[in-house]
């Protein structure tokens, strides 16, 4: 409803700056939660991000998403702002 108040150009800019989702290596589009605008986040099963080494960012690649990695049963496993460090350091411990 609020989007209809914006011009087409501003809607496109908003989509670029604050994308509604992130496409992960599995092919799924994972919703980005902006309820805490200072810490936008996404929750995703760890299997869906195998092959994703850089943390997704918003706001012209200036703000890293808080990534909530979940088990196959959708229970929390790890929260990170740095997927590269997670894969290199913590993954062996949590798997």
Explain how this protein is built.
By secondary structure, this protein is of the alpha+beta class. It is 23% helix and 26% strand. It has two helices and seven strands, in the order H-E-E-E-E-E-E-E-H. The strands form three sheets. It has a three-stranded mixed sheet with strand order 3-6-7, covered by helices on one side. The chain is elongated and about 50 Å long.
> SSE order, as H and E?
HEEEEEEEH
Number of domains: 1
Oligomer category: single chain
Strand content: 25-35%
Q: Mind describing the biggest β-sheet? A: 3 strands, mixed
Annotation field: number of helices: 2
The rounded distance between the terminal residues' Cα atoms is 42 Å
* Structural classification: alpha+beta
Can you give the helix content as a percent range? 10-25%
Q: Per the principal axes of the C-alpha atoms, what is the gross shape?
A: elongated
Mean pLDDT: 92
User: What is the strand tally?
Assistant: 7
Low-confidence stretches: none
